[in-house]
Design brief:
3 helices, single chain, alpha+beta, 2 strands, two-stranded antiparallel sheet
């Protein structure tokens, strides 16, 4: 299964403008996409390498956002 950056924010998929979000935790994203956490982490690594996705800290939690 290939994950695209627009999977993280459906509103971006249907919009011409890129919208900012507060990001999503990887556990929630894995559940939402129906992936095992290990599979999601492999996909995230690829997207981070391509600078399509980045991680940031929100409080004490790591969340992923569009680049």
């Amino acid at each position: 299964m290939t994950i695209f950056p627009t999977d993280f924010c459906p509103s971006v998929r249907n919009s011409e403008k890129r919208q900012e979000t507060d990001g999503i935790e990887q556990e929630l994203l894995a559940k939402k996409l129906g992936l095992k956490l290990n599979d999601l982490q492999r996909e995230i690594a690829t997207l981070r390498h391509m600078e399509k996705l980045r991680a940031t800290m929100k409080g004490d939690k790591k969340v992923f956002c569009l680049w």
